[in-house]
Specification:
Blueprint (H helix, E strand, L loop, with lengths): L1 H12 L4 E6 L1 E14 L6 E14 H10 L3 E8 L3 H12 L3 E7 L7 E7 L2 E8 L7 H17 L3 E5 L8 H13 L3 E5 L13 E2 L3 H8 L7 H14 L4 E5 L5 E5 L4 E4 L12 H14 L4 H15 L10 H11 L12 H13 L4 E6 L6 H11 L4 E7 L1 H8 L8 H9 L6 E5 L5 H7 L3 E5 L15 E5 L7 H11 L7
Parallel strand pairs: 1-4, 1-8, 2-6, 4-5, 8-9, 9-10, 10-11, 14-15, 14-17, 15-16, 17-18
Antiparallel strand pairs: 2-3, 6-7, 11-12, 12-13
Helix pairs in contact: 1-10, 2-8, 4-5, 6-7, 8-9, 9-10
């Protein structure tokens, strides 16, 4: 029953939700590189930069997660009039987030966090920021913004506080009272030691450390200790629920009357916990805004956070990603694979690119998948964040390889490729080259295997960069066919 009701939420209700996010917005910049030596100037590693990435951060990361779930999202906050502020606004617009609630303060520098990573390991973080005092004009603007959103129809409000000064006590209380008067669910992500300004919120979502800071004492990450801490906070403040995020231990909700819900985290290889709390808050609010139960909301939030921690940096979770992983975790681990249209994959590529992620494309017949193919695809995937594979249709393979090929049908080849963890999407094309497909998809990087020069590669004008990679020597479909024929005593050509 729960499974079908969550499937309906993911497939139909999400797109109809309207959620507003207000708080401290910032720009997250990532510098990726490889470390191979120590500097001769000082005992520090030399990071050879390979690529950079910028994504919306802070409260905007919450909004980006909601946009990834395909909700209608409205964002409000204070931005700078500098270059980082302009980059931030462009990213927000590309993510299809309504930015009418962004107030650009003159002569203000955009809050920016820069993370330097070497070989997927964060080496240092540089913060460019200063705490602000909100003005009367800015406060009036934000209140008018929320009043208009309520008038247009709203399912939820998230207050994302990073203690940078936008969510002042008076403004926060005014926003909560306005939302509650309209019967809109309010979720607040708190900071600091005094949480009176969040009084009246339906859900307050600290992590274990923030819970301890509020109480003035460390809280152990056990169910008993977390429950006692939540009860103590409920005695101090007027919240309906506390949702405490507990890293690898999962999520715990404690209602004011003492009722408790607990959802353990799903086992997941963790690369980076950046933004996992924002993802959990966004997913949970979407579920509650759609009138799902608290238990269902916790299950969805845990599933979404599990996707994020397996990646490096902040990554908004897509609705289709969440739907796919949800189905897997419900036990439906095998289903018939249906290739998607060029336009559907192009839309997904635009969503990835809108948040600064790099999309890699390669193509081939991949008839009798072997070790050489796998190695090549893994190397191609390593050039960016997402790998899309263009697969030659059966008719195309026959023209290229002869009437006896392919040995494996296009549908079976697509299923095999899509099952690889390094491959995100498979698109079938019937032309001799992928040029027409690339004109629709327009990924960032085109990877080609073999002895080519970039100028010889078909479709190169539709990408930013072409990379040539050698095939893995000693492995080929032709050699595999020849070996099979030899083993079974079949002469080639018979």
């Amino acid at each position: 029953m729960t499974g079908s009701y969550i499937d309906n939420f993911l497939n139909h209700q999400l797109r109809r939700l309207r959620i507003a996010v207000m708080g401290d917005v910032m720009l997250d910049r990532y510098v990726f590189g490889t470390v191979e030596r120590i500097s001769p100037e000082a005992p520090v590693p030399v990071n050879k930069v390979t690529r950079t990435r910028a994504v919306p951060g802070g409260a905007a990361n919450v909004a980006a997660n909601l946009a990834g779930l395909e909700c209608r999202v409205y964002l409000a906050g204070l931005i700078g009039d500098d270059e980082n502020g302009r980059v931030f606004r462009t990213l927000v617009q590309k993510a299809h987030i309504d930015d009418r609630g962004l107030w650009q303060r003159p002569h203000h520098a955009m809050t920016t966090k820069m993370r330097i990573l070497g070989d997927r390991q964060q080496m240092i973080r540089l913060d460019f920021e200063r705490t602000v005092t909100i003005t009367a004009a800015e406060e009036a603007f934000f209140l008018q913004w929320l009043q208009q959103r309520i008038a247009d129809g709203l399912d939820g409000l998230i207050l994302s506080d990073y203690a940078k000064g936008v969510l002042s006590p008076r403004l926060t209380q005014s926003l909560i009272k306005m939302a509650k008067a309209a019967h809109i669910v309010v979720l607040a992500d708190p900071k600091g030691t005094n949480w009176e300004k969040y009084n009246g919120a339906d859900f307050v979502t600290p992590n274990v450390k923030e819970t301890g800071i509020c109480l003035g004492t460390a809280v152990a990450n056990t169910q008993e200790a977390v429950y006692r801490a939540a009860k103590a906070i409920h005695e101090r403040y007027e919240f309906a629920h506390l949702l405490i995020t507990r890293s690898e231990k999962g999520l715990t909700v404690v209602r004011r009357d003492g009722k408790c819900w607990y959802s353990p985290a799903t086992a997941q290889e963790v690369f980076d916990v950046s933004g996992a709390g924002d993802t959990a808050a966004a997913s949970f609010m979407a579920a509650i805004g759609a009138k799902l139960s608290i238990r269902a909301g916790l299950q969805l939030a845990n599933t979404a956070a599990g996707i994020v921690v397996s990646k490096v940096g902040t990554h908004p979770v897509g609705r289709e990603d969440l739907l796919q992983l949800w189905r897997q975790r419900q036990g439906r681990r095998w289903h018939t694979y249906h290739t998607r249209s060029w336009q559907a994959v192009a839309k997904k590529i635009r969503q990835w690119q809108a948040v600064g992620e790099t999309v890699v494309f390669t193509n081939g017949c991949f008839d009798l998948l072997h070790r050489g193919h796998i190695r090549y695809l893994q190397q191609a995937a390593g050039q960016g964040d997402h790998l899309v594979v263009g697969l030659n249709a059966d008719s195309s393979v026959r023209r290229l390889k002869g009437d006896r090929r392919p040995l494996v049908s296009e549908e079976d080849r697509a299923i095999l490729l899509h099952a690889l963890s390094c491959v995100e999407e498979v698109v079938i094309f019937s032309e001799d080259t992928p040029e027409q497909l690339l004109a629709v998809l327009r990924p960032d990087i085109l990877v080609k295997g073999g002895d080519y020069t970039p100028e010889e590669v078909a479709g190169r004008s539709y990408v930013k960069e072409v990379k040539i990679m050698p095939f893995c020597e000693g492995y080929s479909t032709s050699a595999l066919v020849a070996k099979i024929c030899t083993v079974y005593g079949v002469k080639t050509g018979e």
